[in-house]
Amino acid sequence: MSSRAVFDHCILLLPMVASTPAPLPPGSFGLPVVGETLNFLFDREFAKKRQARYGAIFKTRLLGRPTVVLMGAEANQFVLSTNMDSFSWREGWPGTFKQLLGESLFLQEGEEHRRNRKLLMPAFHGPALVGYVETMQSLTERYAQKWAAQGQLTWFDEMKQLTFDIASTLLLGSEPGSQTTQMSEWFADLTNGLFAPPIHWGWTPFGKAVKARDQLLHHIEQVVKERQARPTQDALGLLVHSEDEEGNRLSLEELKAQALLMLFAGHETTTSMLTSLVMSLAQHPDVWEQARQEQAQLMETSDAVTLEQIRQMPYLDQIVKEVERLYPPVAGGFRGVVKDFEFNGYRVPKGWMALYRIDAAHRDRTIYTDPDRFDPDRFSPERAEHKRADFSLVGFGGGPRICLGLAFAQLEIKLVAAHLLRYYTWDLVPDQNLEMTPIPTLRPRSGLKVVFKKRAIAPTQVTADQTGQRQP
Question: Does the record's keyword annotation contain Iron (predicted)?
């Protein structure tokens, strides 16, 4: 065959080569229908094992749907930013979430999401945050005094009550007391139903969750109507009277759904991070001591934790980042695939489910030195390990849909932590199970049992003996 004939033959083959689709990701769909759902739910190393075998992308079947799992900072950026038009929030989460959390910002897409996010924004940023500090501080001190009187407590449960009181007071305008206690119990039932089988019988976890949702929505409706008649400066009051460029406001049903989401998001993940933070301080006396010294210096100008002071706590900021990295409240996010895409040379079809794993990037050895170790200094200006790769720290999400309440949550976490560091001390009760359980949000299995007491001396007098034990 002449060289010209060979060239022509190759040209004819080009369309065939170009039309050959990329392969599906490696992995296994597992058993019929069930797939690998049971392994996913009960084996905490499920994703890590498959990443070791298949790499940063693999296929499986979860909850009856073919699923692609994406691992690492590059995958986070792909899902959360550069290719987010291939994914749907609404189509990614189980039906239980849609039923229990309603038509809120959490499940909205496109223009509807952008419009409502803009309406919600003023309640979580800028001047609104300034007005939240005093309430956060007074509630924190009220709970701390109660904990000191108790002496020994299970801190996760107590921390959840504190964060719910803060959320319900600042977001809904509720007064702490029997009403917020009842609402907190309803929210506990609602949360327990998010991952439960959708069986509507009243005695099932999901049945109880539906009842709790209805009770919460009924209460919120009454509060919305009060805010419509008499404006207030809590988040719901701001939201009731918030307008877009065309003068449109949220309807009653929209307000109820957004308020329910605000309460849910405003205390669940914050409780997880605060519990992990106080546990980590107790486990690392050297970190605790350095954090206390930072607070001691700030107390020379003001005993109260002010917003201006919170901006002057670089070491506490490093601790919060390290807690977010090592103990993210949720391990990943589900999305529905609404458009075919390719990643790392593999094709993922429309109609699949996608799961990006937060913890994969957070423990990536190419980004973080000795990633299983608690080390706040990795976020110091000198090391700044999270800047080695974009989207390597995504405990609060990332991209255009980063957590709306990020500034609110960080303010609350830092204020509570700073107050406890200044005036209180605690020790972990021995022989408890501190293994972290991920559902519905990350927390120690024991709930974190501690002995809690008021400090008897100024923070500047704290020392450590040769064994690393704190000296009162």
Answer: yes
Do the Cβ atoms of 193 and 210 come closer than 8 Å? yes
Count the Cβ atoms, other than its own, within 10 Å of residue 21. Answer: 9
Residue 192 lies in a domain: yes
Residues 6+ apart with CB under 8 A from 316: 291, 294, 295, 414, 417, 418, 421
Copy the structure tokens of residue 450: 């501690």
pTM over 0.70: yes
Structural domain span for residue 301: 114-324+403-471
β-pair partners for 88? 336
Element (DSSP H or E) covering residue 286: helix 285-299
Smallest Cα–Cα separation from 453: which of 273, 282, 272? 282
Compute the distance between CA of residue 395 and CA of residue 412 in angstroms, rounded to an integer: 16
Q: What is the CATH number of the domain that holds 216?
A: 1.10.630.10
Distance separating alpha carbons of residues 20 and 237, to the nearest angstrom: 57
Name the β-bridge partners of 347. Answer: 342
The pLDDT value recorded for residue 257 is 86
DSSP label at residue 303: S
> Nearest to residue 438, comparing CAs of 329, 358, 321?
329
Which pLDDT band, with edges at 50, 70 and 90, does 264 fall under? confident
DSSP-derived pairing of the beta strands 65-71 and 353-357: parallel
As a whole number of angstroms, the distance between CA 260 and CA 186 comes to 12
In a domain, 297, yes or no: yes
Domains held by the chain: number: 1
Mean pLDDT, residues 311-322 taken together: 97
Q: How many CB atoms lie within 10 A of CB 15?
A: 9
